[in-house]
Amino acid sequence: MNYRTFGRSGLRVSELFLGAMTFGENWGWGASLDECRKMIDMYADAGGNVIDTANNYTDGASEQIVGELLRTRRDRFVLSSKYTLTLDPADPNASGNHRKSLRRLLDQSLSRLNTDRIDLLWVHIWDSLTPIEETMRALDDAVRAGKVLYVGISDTPAWVVSRANTLAALRGWSPFIGIQVPYSLVQRDIERELLPMADELSLSVAAWSPLGAGRLTGKFTRGSDGGPSRTDRDDVSERDLTIAREVDAVADDLGVTSSQVALAWTMAHRPSVHPIVGARRLEQLSDNLAATDVALPDEALRRLDEAGAIELGFPHDFIASTRNFVYGSVADRVANR
What's the CATH number of domain 3-311, 3.20.20.100, 3.30.10.20, 3.20.20.30, 3.40.50.300? Predict the structure, then answer.
């Protein structure tokens, strides 16, 4: 596996991140401790070095398992976790992105992970009740205290992320170096605002659900038995199935699996996109890790792009359609340096 620097930092991260949302059996469909140990070993042997969890995954069991399994090799990995979501639904201050929540949830995560710092701490989701300047200052304090090394943000509008990093630059606070967002051939919404923003601000992208919650694995098109699934067949649209069948066809042409094609596509256009691969079984992870060896030919890439294409909407489509009207006949002969 190859490595890239993450955002505007010197942090070296592997092409694929290992998602630990499946670590623990508390939610009824996760992996046992022994299976998690095997998956971390396989991921490390393949060159992977980022493990992504969160304070509430499997009700905290995910962080405990990760902490236990990394006890003797903590420095080998980039440990990534998240705060925001509550573990105490009756307490209004037990969640959110405010300072009190951050302090409480961060200390709990450090204890469960059995570590003195989190390498990459994500804001898990936008909290519109908390001013973004409070969040950024509180995160910077955690960095200055040595409890966190880098910060990122997940599931948040582009304008909020842009404002946050502008404030950080103005006031000398630690900026976000990455965003974590859903991205797959069946969910390309981030191409409208979030991906262009990430390009402009040099943010890396951690892509969750890169297999479309199982839609692109062949589970619903090839009749393969993937075991328990969080996606019900009734929730899979005809559009999803059409895209999945094209993924299957490309996979058959290349002699690889559908999952490998779907993962390779997420990385094909931007080296800054890192799919988060999660698995319940060792064989699933083994299949996913092989995606780094899949090079999609131009024709295959075109077919996949067209199959999952979305309308960018206003103002993007309008700007593109008025290009010659705005810039004249030389529009197509002018390019950025």
Answer: 3.20.20.100
What residues have CB less than 8 Å from 263, skipping those under 6 apart?
A: 16, 210, 211, 275, 277, 288, 291, 294
Which residue in 57, 83, 150, 183 is the catalytic one? 57
Two tokens, residue 3: 């490595």
Q: Which residue has the tokens 């404030």?
A: 167
Q: How many Cα atoms occupy the beta-carbon half-sphere of 78 within 13 Å?
A: 25
Closest CA relative to residue 215, chosen from 199, 190, 232, 202: 232
**Domains of the chain: which residue ranges?**
3-311
For the purposes of burial, counting CB atoms within 10 Å of the CB of 50, is it exposed (0-12), middle (13-18) or buried (19 or more)?
Answer: buried
Q: What is the pLDDT of residues 19-54, one digit of tens each?
A: 999 999 988 889 999 999 999 999 999 999 999 999
What's the pLDDT at 91?
Answer: 97
* Contact of 69 with 40, CB cutoff 8 Å: yes
* Span between the terminal Cα atoms of the chain, in Å: 32
Q: What tens digit of pLDDT does each residue of 211-247 get? A: 999 999 999 998 765 455 567 777 889 999 999 999 9
Compute how many other C-beta atoms are within 10 angstroms of the C-beta atom of residue 78: 21
Name the one residue in this structure whose structure tokens are 């304008």. Answer: 159
Kind of pairing, strands 148-154 and 176-182?
parallel
């969890």: which residue's tokens? 53
- Mean pLDDT for all residues in the chain: 95
57 catalytic? Reply is yes
pLDDT tens-digit map of 246-304 = 999 999 999 999 999 999 999 999 999 999 999 999 999 999 999 999 999 999 999 99
Among 118, 67, 123, 76, CA closest to 95: 123
Strand-pairing partners, residue 105, are none
Check: CB of residue 260 under 8 Å from CB of residue 294. Answer: yes
Q: pTM of the entire structure?
A: 0.94
